[in-house]
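P.,

For your records, the input lines for the assembly:
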Amino acid sequence: MRTLVLNAGYEPLAVVTFRRALVLVLAGKASVVAEDGEPVVGPRDVLGRPSVILLHRYIRPRRTYVTAVSRRGVLRRDAHACGYCGKPAHTVDHVLPRSRGGADSWENLVACCLRCNNVKGDHTPSEMGWKLRFTPAEPVGVVWQIKELEKPAAQWSAFLVPETAA
Ligand SMILES: [Zn+2]
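Structure tokens returned:
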């Protein structure tokens, strides 16, 4: 189930999961324009599944910009899924280990589960015979900007069903 996000000027901005849309609505960042399908039942409320939401604040789509790298940012970029095995990740791994000159950069950091991180240690993926599931890069684009809007809405995450990585 996907939700269309309209910018504050009513122009279509992006398509996100309904979970992400609900987070924005619950955080007061957007309002529901149209609902569709089965309601979502939470501990305190029953909410309609939004099919279209309208952002309250205008987002200026960014084409190129530099985002400061952070552990949280890397985990969010990689949807908290290990870059090597795909399992839930709570740590960040330097693809080229820091001890061997690896940088703290978007290109050299991936979300990593504790197990892979411990096993990998100071090795490179090729030394381990491992392959990254994707090529790490600086996050860009509108969906990332929408994700950033969700930051103060973390208290709602327990209310919502988990989603698979978009
Ligand atoms: Zn892993």
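Two observations worth noting. The longest helix spans residues 18-26. The chain has a mean pLDDT of 82.

Regards
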